[in-house]
Amino acid sequence: MRPRSYDVQSPGVTSVITLLTDYGLEDGFVATCHGVIISIAPEARIIDVCHLVPAGDIRRGAAILAQTLPYLPAGVHIAAVDPAAASARRSVAVEAGNRVFIGPDNGLLSWALLAAGGARVAYEITNADLFRTPVSPTFHGRDVYAPVAAHLCAGRKPADLGPEIPLERLLSLPAPTARLAEGAAEGEVLSVDRYGNVQLSVTADDLATLGIHVGDTLAVSMGRRQITVPFRDTYAAVPPGNLVAFTDSAALVAFAVNSGDASQRLGLPPGAHVRLARVGMA
After folding, report:
1. Which residue has the higher pLDDT, 14 or 82?
2. Taking every annotated instance into account, which residue ranges of this chain make up the domain S-adenosyl-l-methionine hydroxide adenosyltransferase N-terminal (predicted)?
């Protein structure tokens, strides 16, 4: 998918901290992070972006953060999705636009950094004076990210966090691919949400460029499988149990089953290749 630019340069609210994690809601992990932040920066406004990212799913976390970012006030954005949490991977703080992103250097932040206009400067988080101690090797969200974000809201500068890192040394996820070729849009599954909707890297504008509009029928190729899917304005435009393609709230093409699960129906995991054309043009 071609990187999308959003206007995230509006006046910032420096007391805002957002949280995106895979911690779930069954335990006290999220509340613990809230408590650490408030104990250091009592005036901080905390926005919970999502805590139900599938465990360790960096790609899903990256997609949620990047697609939510345009609607969040400027501030400090914590992202904690890390299947290698107990490893020696470093923690980073990255400035982009008038925002600071905090998280593991595992690619999780990379799509949001692009959405924010691109990273300007990055720091490795090493200043232990700003950590909660002792630091758990498996809970950096509580002991590193939360207190560091709170200290930033309380007036500390990102340069106080540790040494600067060359931007080219930050780990990045490969950008989702999408291209127009031979009358078709070729892309990949970007993510699958909790409803089983399958979001593609293909945009509604891509389809419009091909002359495909709401009301048409899509010829969908998924490897050796080929099916036809109606392209409608919402999943409710087809009877319950039927498959439909529509433009989702991120302006991306998605598959859904009305009152069902498209991911189970299609068996399309994130990264799977998909080709879309209008019936009669495939």
Report:
1. 82
2. 17-162
Q: Report all structural domains of the chain as residue ranges with CATH numbers, in order of start.
A: 16-169 (3.40.50.10790), 178-278 (2.40.30.90)
- Say whether the peptide bond before residue 134 is cis (omega within 30 degrees of 0): yes
Residue 159 has pLDDT above 50, yes or no: yes
pLDDT per residue over 24-73, tens digit each?
999 999 999 999 999 999 999 999 999 999 999 999 999 999 999 999 99
At which residue do the structure tokens 């969200």 appear? 141
Q: Which residues contact 70 (CB under 8 A, 6 or more apart)?
A: 6, 7, 8, 115
d(CA 147, CA 125): 11
- On whether the CB atoms of residues 24 and 51 are closer than 8 A, the answer is yes
> Residue 37, class by beta-carbon neighbours within 10 Å (0-12 exposed, 13-18 middle, 19+ buried)?
buried
> Do residues 117 and 8 lie in contact, with contact meaning Cβ atoms separated by under 8 Å?
yes
Q: Tell me the C-alpha distance between 212 and 233, whole Å.
A: 13
Q: Which helix (H) or strand (E) holds 39?
A: helix 29-40
Residue 231 DSSP symbol: B
Structure confidence by residue, pLDDT tens digits, 229-265: 999 999 899 999 999 999 999 999 999 999 999 999 9
